[in-house]
C-alpha cells in the first residue's frame, strides 16, 4: 500500500511539473505576442505618421459599428486626400479619396489586400476578384470575350424579360397601402438575369421559391464576412470556426456552394444533349460559363474544378448583388426627386412609347436617364471600397509616401462625396454628368478603375438602364417618409433598414 501511495505521489508531482511547464510556455508565448504587437504598432505609428487620424483604441482600433460611412464623410471633410483607419490595434489601412491619389494606386499592379480579402475566400474562392499576378491575368484574358458587345446585345431582351416578371409581381401588389421593401425583389430579379445570361439557366428564378435561400445566404455572408474583417478576435481561423458566427458562415457557404454546383452540373448535362455541343462550338463568342467549361489555359490543361467553381461563385455573387444594390439605390434616388423621375419617364416614353419592348439600340438614346443613373451611382456606389497591399513603396503627388506591405483602401464612397471635386456632394444633381461637364478622370469610379476595373461594367450599366426604363413606364416611385434608408458599408452597399418605396401604377 505504501508503495502505491508513493508511486501516486510521484505521478502527481510529475503531472504538476508538466502543468507548470505548459503554463510557463503559454506565458512565454503570450509575452512574445505582446512584444511582437508592441513593436509592430510602434513601427506602424512611425511609418504612417504623415497620415492623420481621429483617436482610436490601442487594441480594437476605430470601433464604428454600422457608422463607418458617416466616419468616412467626416474624414473626407477633415483630412485632405487621405487618412488613417485602424481596423484593429495592429491592422491599419490608409483610406484614399483624392482622384490624384487613386490614379496612382489604380495604375499600379499591387495585389488585393490579403489581410481582409482572405476572409472572402471560403465563400467565393480564388476567382477573378481575389486572384493576383499571372493567374489573374490568364483568367481575365480568358473571360473578357464573355462581355463582348456581340454577347451583350441579345442579353438586353433577357434582362427585359426578367424585369417584367418582377414588375408583374409588383402589379399584383397594387392597392396595398404599405410600402414595399424593394431590395429583396430586385435581388431575385438580378439573380434571374445573371443565371440566364451567364449560366444558360432555363426557367425563372423569380418564380422558384427555393431561390430565396441563395439570396438569403448571400446576405448573411455579406454581413458575416464584413464583421469578421473588423473583429480583432476573429482574425484566427481556429477561433472563428469555433464561434457562433463561424458556424453560421460555414452553413451559408454550404448553401451558396450547393446553388453554384447545381448550376454547373445542369449546364454540363445540357452540353451532353444531342447537337448542343456542336451548336455551342460554332458560336463566335461563348457565354460566361461555357467559356469556363471549354477553357484551356496556356499549359493545355483544363480549369480545375476548384478554379471553375471559384469563378462561378464570384460572378454569381458580383453579377447579382452589386447590380441589385445599384438598381435599388437608383430607384430610391428617383423616388425622392420626383422632378428628375418625371423627366426620365418622359424620355423613356418618347423612345419606347407605352410598350415594354427595349433593345440594345435604345440604350444609347437615354441621355437624361443615364445622367440620373450615374448621379445615383455617385451618391450610392454599389461597392464602397476596394483594397490593395503595396508590393513596393509608393509616393503620392503631394510628397507623402508609404512603405511596402501597407494596406491602401480606395474609398469610392469617400471619393464620390469629396466636396473638393463634387460641390454640395449630398445633393442629387444629374447635370454633373451632362455631356459638356468637366471632371477629373478618376473622380467617378463606380466600377473601380485601372487594369482591375469591373469586367462586367457594361453588362451592369445595360441592366441598370433596362430596369429603370421599364419600371418608370409602369410605376411612379414614391418614398416612404417613415422608413428613410440608412446607407451601410458592407462588401456591397446596403441599407441598415432596407429600402422601402410606395409603388403607384401608371394608368395607360
TrEMBL record:
It comes from the Eukaryota. InterPro entries: Cyt_P450, Cyt_P450_CS, Cyt_P450_E_grp-I, Cyt_P450_sf, Cytochrome_P450_Monoox. Keywords: Endoplasmic reticulum, Heme, Iron, Membrane, Metal-binding, Microsome, Monooxygenase, Oxidoreductase, Transmembrane, Transmembrane helix. One of its GO terms (cellular component) is endoplasmic reticulum membrane. GO terms for biological process: arachidonate metabolic process; icosanoid biosynthetic process; kidney development; lauric acid metabolic process; linoleic acid metabolic process. Heme binds at residue 454. It is found in: Endoplasmic reticulum membrane; Microsome membrane. GO terms for molecular function: alkane 1-monooxygenase activity; arachidonate monooxygenase activity; heme binding; iron ion binding. Coiled coil: none annotated. The keyword Nucleotidyltransferase does not apply. Its cofactor is heme. Its main location: endoplasmic reticulum. The chain crosses the membrane at residues 12-39. Belongs to the cytochrome P450 family. This is Cytochrome P450, family 4, subfamily a, polypeptide 14. It comes from Nannospalax galili (Northern Israeli blind subterranean mole rat). The lineage of its organism: Eukaryota, Metazoa, Chordata, Craniata, Vertebrata.
Amino acid at each position: 500500500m505504501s508503495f502505491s501511495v508513493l508511486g501516486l505521489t510521484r505521478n502527481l508531482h510529475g503531472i504538476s511539473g508538466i502543468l507548470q511547464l505548459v503554463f510557463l510556455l503559454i506565458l512565454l508565448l503570450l509575452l512574445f505576442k505582446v512584444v511582437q504587437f508592441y513593436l509592430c504598432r510602434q513601427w506602424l505609428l512611425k511609418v504612417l505618421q504623415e497620415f492623420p487620424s481621429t483617436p482610436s483604441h490601442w487594441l480594437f482600433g476605430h470601433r464604428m459599428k454600422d457608422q463607418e460611412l458617416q466616419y468616412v464623410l467626416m474624414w473626407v471633410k477633415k483630412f485632405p486626400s487621405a487618412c488613417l483607419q485602424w481596423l484593429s490595434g495592429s491592422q491599419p489601412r490608409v483610406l484614399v479619396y483624392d482622384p490624384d491619389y487613386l490614379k496612382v494606386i489604380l495604375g499600379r499592379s499591387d495585389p488585393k489586400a490579403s489581410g481582409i480579402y482572405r476572409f472572402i475566400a471560403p465563400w467565393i474562392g480564388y476567382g477573378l476578384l481575389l486572384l493576383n499576378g499571372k493567374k489573374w491575368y490568364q483568367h481575365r484574358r480568358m473571360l473578357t470575350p464573355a462581355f463582348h458587345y456581340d454577347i451583350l446585345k441579345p442579353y438586353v431582351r433577357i434582362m427585359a424579360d426578367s424585369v417584367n416578371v418582377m414588375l408583374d409581381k409588383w402589379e399584383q401588389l397594387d392597392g396595398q397601402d404599405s410600402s414595399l421593401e424593394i431590395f429583396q425583389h430586385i435581388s431575385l430579379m438580378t439573380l434571374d438575369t445573371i443565371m440566364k445570361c451567364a449560366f444558360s439557366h432555363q426557367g425563372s428564378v423569380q418564380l422558384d421559391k427555393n431561390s430565396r435561400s441563395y439570396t438569403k445566404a448571400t446576405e448573411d455572408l455579406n454581413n458575416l464576412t464584413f464583421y469578421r474583417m473588423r473583429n480583432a478576435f476573429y482574425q484566427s481561423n481556429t477561433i472563428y470556426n469555433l464561434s457562433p458566427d463561424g458556424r453560421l458562415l460555414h452553413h451559408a457557404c454550404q448553401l451558396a456552394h450547393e446553388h453554384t454546383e447545381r448550376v454547373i452540373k445542369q449546364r454540363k448535362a445540357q452540353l451532353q444533349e444531342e447537337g448542343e455541343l456542336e451548336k455551342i462550338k460554332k458560336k463566335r463568342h461563348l457565354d460566361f460559363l461555357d467559356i469556363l467549361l471549354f477553357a484551356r489555359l496556356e499549359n493545355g490543361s483544363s480549369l480545375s474544378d476548384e478554379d471553375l467553381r471559384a469563378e462561378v461563385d464570384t460572378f454569381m455573387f458580383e453579377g447579382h448583388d452589386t447590380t441589385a444594390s445599384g438598381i435599388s439605390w437608383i430607384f430610391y434616388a428617383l423616388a425622392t426627386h420626383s422632378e428628375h423621375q418625371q423627366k426620365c419617364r418622359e424620355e423613356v416614353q418618347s423612345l419606347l412609347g407605352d410598350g415594354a419592348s427595349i433593345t440594345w439600340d435604345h440604350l444609347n438614346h437615354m441621355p437624361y436617364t443615364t445622367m440620373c443613373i450615374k448621379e445615383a451611382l455617385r451618391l450610392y456606389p454599389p461597392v464602397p471600397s476596394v483594397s490593395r497591399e503595396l508590393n513596393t513603396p509608393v509616393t503620392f503627388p503631394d510628397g507623402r509616401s508609404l512603405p511596402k506591405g501597407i494596406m491602401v483602401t480606395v474609398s469610392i464612397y469617400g471619393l464620390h462625396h469629396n466636396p473638393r471635386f463634387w460641390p454640395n456632394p449630398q445633393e442629387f444633381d444629374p447635370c454633373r454628368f451632362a455631356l459638356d461637364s468637366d471632371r477629373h478622370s478618376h473622380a467617378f469610379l463606380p466600377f473601380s478603375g485601372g487594369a482591375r476595373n469591373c469586367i462586367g461594367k457594361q453588362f451592369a450599366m445595360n441592366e441598370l438602364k433596362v430596369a429603370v426604363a421599364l419600371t418608370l413606364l409602369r410605376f411612379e416611385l414614391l418614398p416612404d417618409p417613415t422608413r428613410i434608408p440608412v446607407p451601410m458599408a458592407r462588401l456591397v452597399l446596403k441599407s441598415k433598414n432596407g429600402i422601402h418605396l410606395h409603388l403607384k401604377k401608371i394608368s395607360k
